Every structure is written in structure tokens, then in C-alpha cells.
Amino acid sequence: MSIDKDTAxxxxxxxxxxxxxxxxxxxxxxxxxxxxxxxxxxxxxxxxVEPMTSVTxxxxxxxxxxxxxxxxxxxxxxxxPDAREGFFAVPKVVx
Length: 95
Prior knowledge:
95 residues, two-stranded antiparallel ribbon, 3 helices, elongated
């Protein structure tokens, strides 16, 4: 497919890109090459080819989705400036 300067100007306008007049001809050539390459790719037979997410086969490591309290209360309360009876202690703000 061949793109002319007017089409390149229109594409630049639609993309909201300011293109100088002298740059329209190279832009038209580049767009034509891109469309030719896309046409070439569309001719490749991909029947029976499964989609892939990576070039190497991988499986995600998974764990059981179990709800727990984390069993880390003591570790967390070590960071508190004041902790009492298993809770953060804060100054009284309401009389």
C-alpha cells in the first residue's frame, strides 16, 4: 500500500503531531513501509500456533489462597513505641 503526502499530512493531523512540510515525504515512505510489513505479516500461516506469553515455558509459583492472621503480632508490635495487651497504645485524644 502506498501512502502519499496528503495522507501522511492527514494521519499527522489525526495523531495531533506537527510535521514540517519537508518531513511529510519521508513520513509517507515510512508509513508505506510499515503497512507493507503488516501486509507481509498477515500472509503468514498461523493456524495451529498457540498464543504465548513468553519465549520460554514458565509456570507461576502458586500458593494456597488461605486466610490467616499472619501470626506476626509480636513482630509487628516490636516496632510500636507503646504496646499494651497485644495492641498499639496511643495517647487519649478525646476527653
